[in-house]
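Exam review. A common question shows you a sequence with its structure tokens and asks you to describe the fold in words. Practice with the pair below. Do the first one on your own.
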Amino acid sequence: MDFEIENPDQMDVEELVAKPIHREPPTIHRLDEAVVNRIAAGEVIQRPVSAVKELLENSIDADSSSISVLVKDGGLKLIQVSDDGHGIRYEDLPILCERHTTSKLSKFEDLLSIKSMGFRGEALASMTYVGHVTVTTITKGQLHGYRATYKDGVMEHEPKACAAVKGTQIMIENLFYNMSARRKTLQNSADDYPKIVDLICRFAIHHISVNFSCRKHGAARADVHSVATSSRLDAIRSVYGVSVAQNLMEVEVSEDDPSSSIFEMDGFISNSNYIAKKITMVLFINDRLVECGALKRAIEIVYAATLPKASKPFIYMSIKLPPEHIDVNVHPTKREVSLLNQEVVVEKIQSAIESKLRNSNESRTFQEQRVDPSPSVSISMSKESSSHPSSSGSKSQKVPVQKMVRTDSQDPAGRLHAYLQVTPSSQLKGSSRLASIRSAIRQRRNPRETADLTSIQELIREIDSSCHSELLDIVRNCSYIGMADDVFALLQHNTHLYLANVVNLSKELMYQQVLRRFAHFSAIQLSDPAPLPELIMLALKEEELNTEGDENDDLKEKIAEMNTEMIKQKAEMLEEYFGIHIDQNGNLSRLPIVLDQYTPDMDRVPEFVLCLGNDVNWDDEKICFQTIAAAIGNFYAFHPPLLPNPSGDGMQFYQRVPSRTPEEGDASKSADDANKDEVEHELLLEAESAWAQREWSIQHVLFPSMRLFLKPPTSMATNGTFVKVASLEKLYKIFERC
């Protein structure tokens, strides 16, 4: 609100009076149609690659077998897309670039069965509002073609007869000529042409019956040139190269359950040999190039357990669903779609990829040459192939799957001697061969590998040896139903129902992950470094050791001081091995990422720091690592939030308690009833958010991660972590009898 001060020179500061200026509300008016269209055009055509995508889809809808793209200055000066499709009828040219003119549908219900790429009739119109568009086309049977120019959705003059080749050529010049801010931004960007090339590459490996080419204006050679082929893998090899194609595996999954989901998926995924710094995911749903964040995250979780650190996969995937199960009209640029039963589809695909990767370990093996003992042992590594005969003339024996070299950088436990294919020789010492192989593989996987410490190997061997096979099957193949209470989740495995303690499960999962990620942690950066003494004092006060006032505070300060000094002395080791950074002043500034896409409850940081000081045995290496991992596991576990659950009896915690004197007696009872509805709304909202976030994380982060990583120990079979509560078969028989 604006204020006006009258005669400020004649008044003292205390006498100044602010008077509000009353203004009339602004008038609402209808925008000019040209303004509306230009605003809409800026949303549909966001940058040059958006225009290219729309034109490519139009060409594919026109049954083209060859599409060529010509680009000048990243698409700002010129975009030209030519195809050999069925062309555009002469009678349709006058309304071609008007908004909402299309040949793809005639009524809204047609969207339920739409199969074409375009349907809105907005793309060409939008281009005419932000650029100069020229269309040249010829249809089958015509002796000559026609050329027309368009501006602001209107054809500027009658189509002119011209020489033309089969199909349509659409040329956009001076894109964003009337949007100076966007044009200047794009002129300073050097990635528009690479984006166009990447887009055409994606179309080329899906539409393998179409020839694609793309080149810069004035260049003699095309940057993309793909020819029609019958093999998807050949198309990938042609576009992305041999190094990508030779490291791909075919994957297929389908579901035909009307009550759950109906879909078919086929594609190619990279194996463990593929190494890249950036994920490449090409996803087509019903032949539409789209993005799906949920599916991408699910696949990245699976690959996190397979690829070397900092490597990303290559994914090509084509999903087919009934047209009525997909909503294509959810994004201005059609970049996203909405799927019926999306969560089920994503889970099925994730499981199929996980299974494929588990069974593909044999694609990465290491062989050793037979050499004389010498200080420098020659070791060669290559893919295992049955077509390569050994020196004795017989084929090399295939290494069993369980003996293959592990490629999971997050599980660098070593034990590589158990995986090697040994050539019998009385002249070679096993120890020298093992040392050389370990060195070669360590350089290939990670030059900073430090998880070969004997203590870490022993701890992970203990996890492997104590794994309960039946519980492992339950964890890997269970279905999450929901939370039964604050601690127990309800699971179904086959026909049995179980209650599972999510706190115990998550604590064990985090403990195992800490050991597997040993010395390979990413970091959570705290916005403000937290002083260790203050954190420890907070934890001690929460514990309420005793109630002796000042003496108790003195004791707490001594404990905090001693623990702080101890942790500061071990700061270098904590940072190198566990990703916990503590500066010279005793401030905690970084914490490790134990599980991707999960951040622990920061309210438990004081308790965690106190555990580091009190519970860790710093004298014995193995016990030290074990207790630190246990402390981190307890910190990262899915504990119930500190605020009581508002959905149960905890609701009374959020009700305001009215203050009253003893003299008021029974007269205040009616007031009590009136105050029952008064609650601390801000605190209640915070609690509801915390509990809802926890349940979401349990379902979408904890259980998917457990299926991949957790090896439940035998103790969980007897300590109440898993409780079998029902058998659906028995219940069904009881119901039948009733």
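Now try the second one, then compare your answer with the model answer below.
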Amino acid sequence: MLSDDQVNEIIIEVENVPSGVQRHLASSQIFLRKSTANPTFSMVSSSMTDITDCQIFSNGNDGRHNRLLRFSSLNESISQIHHSPECLGMDETCTFHETVQGQKLISSLIPMTSRDRIKAIRNQPRTMQEKRELRKIVDKEKSKQLLEANCCAQCLSSLSLAYRRSKGNLSELLNYISFWQKTFKVIGGKFGTSVLSYFSFLRWLLKFNIFSFVMNFSFIIIPQFTVAEKNTLQFTGLEFFTGAGYFRDTVMYYGFYTNSTIQHGTSGPFYNMQLAYIFTIGACLVVCFFSLLFSMAKYFRNNFINPHIYSRGIAKLVFCWDFTVTHEKAVKLKQKNLSTEIRENLSEIRQENNRLTLNQQLTQFSAHVAAWLVSTGVAAACCLAVYYLAEYNSEFLKTHRNPGAVLLLPFVVSCINLVVPRFYSMFRLVERYEVPRQEVYILLIRNILLKISIVGILCYYWLNIVALSGEECWETLIGQDIYRLLLMDFVFSLADSLLGEFLRRFIGTKFITSLSLQEFDIARNVLELIYAQTLTWLGIFFCPLLPFIQMITLFIMFYVKNISLMMNFQPPSKAWRASQMITFFIFLLFFPSFTGVLCSLAITIWRLKPSADCGPFRGLPSFIESIYSWIDTLSRRSGYLWVVWIYQNLIGSVHFFFILTLIVLIITYLYWQITEGRKIMIRLLHEQIINEGKDKMFLIEKLTKLQDMEKRANPSALILERREVEKQSPLHLEELSAAHDLRLRRSMHEENPEV
């Protein structure tokens, strides 16, 4: 802003209008003079409503501060409110109540909803202080109307306001306590959104396991502690690897929990452990189910349906900057993030324009078919090897009591999960995908087929061999197997990150420099997370503390992967956006991982017979029998018949789940159709923008040719125009003298080449 001693007067003149109009305006120039009593400007002039583009010239006392500013067309409401006759000559700013237009504006804002009102005030071309005053006035008028309304309207308004405030406060709290925000910015700035999607998915899974652990600890583990007996087994330390021994008689496994009703005192409240166990596990799975559905719908809407994703956020990247960022490191990190996003967008645009010839397409298709045949054969061979090893291992453990022998099956399975995905990654040398996202998708599908097939073979082994073998507490044995698989997978992942990736970097930088640094394998690392989470959900019924173990492993793996990423990896050679990758990750976690877990647990609860000597369901013909007996008890009480009706008509009804599945499929189909329709709309609008640009260029060329023809026909017009400009604005003449001299010389040279 100009200082007080620099501002004397501001002259508004019209630029590039016919000479006749200029003479008319020369006699009626508009002056804005600074008021001596108030730092605001008051307008003293005649009305000129047809002027849209004006020039403001500020001339300082020393004559050195000449500035050229431009006004765009002022908003009609601003001119009506602030420049109305009621406000002219007043020293103070005219309030909204003092003008008819202001009262109309307030009355139009009052009936709006809160969101629409805020948006309308935000779009007003006013200063921030005026917007705040306008909002206060509208809120005050709204409160007066609410006081005059009935009690129900006041209650509803108060509840809605309290809900919005609590929702905003909760959102701010969740953002504040969110894990690793600064680390995420560093990863995104250096490696892009593709690598960042892995860490976002890891944090998302960590929240799932925190919720599951809190539920199990609150409703299962704490009540069991109140009636638990002292553990008489000796702790040797080997239990951390085998999961057996001392841990067998702890709250870690199913067999330790009591089947009696917990009651302290003869008249105190009682706690049914059977119902608590099955309802807590069921509630965790139901919440996970709906959370997965909601997350898929949310990410699908944000990444596939919203139209702004098809513009790739170019406007946000190029024209927006957060001016609240002032720290030097934060500014550099923000710049790095923006440059990475721009590279990703440009890379995608370039990849979309690439087209392969027919021979290249046939060669690539043959390579894809061969890679799929080899990967499917390897997965089938691994599944057969795991199944026969599991059968052999069960026979071997009956004759050998070596504590370390139980680690054979988890060791082999972890070796397969470590080696085979790397073998799949080598197919990229043959397939050579042009789009990196397609390569990640294919690797994810191949790896998920391998790992879920192995988990399916193990489930078949547990539910058809271990559960029917007559072992003393087969639920605890299954829980121990799942614990060992999860622990061994964590150990292999840790060793691979700390040793394997470090050795790969050392070899690539010291001995074989052609290898250089490797790129982060998103597909393999994401599948490790999905595999571990599948085991956690599968074992939560047999080992209630498994979410706590998974929570610790995820927390450790984040820091290990982050350190290894910064030391041993380079940014992706092909930059690409991964905004839609999280949606695909969650879909793979939902199907086939979570749905397979639900099927396995449903078979366990409805078909298998519990152990007779351990666990909360001992002595029952099936796990679900506890629910049946509870429903029979409630049916004999008139006050709980509504619970019986809900169970019989909703939870226990096949038709309800069929209708629910049908509704989900219909909604999914509608979302898909909306996505396709918006893609077509965006493509048509893009073509329309291109055509309009071509039309504008054509008109500009025509106008340029007409101007050149007019100048050749009448070269003296330039001299007259120069004189008119000199009369109107000497300062404008100084600014544009070079351009006028150049045009005059060029026109004279065209008319008289000899000169």
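Model answer, second protein: The chain has a mean pLDDT of 76. The beta strands are 9-14, 30-34, 41-44, 54-58, 67-71, 261-263, 270-272, 518-519, 569-570. Full marks require stating both points clearly.
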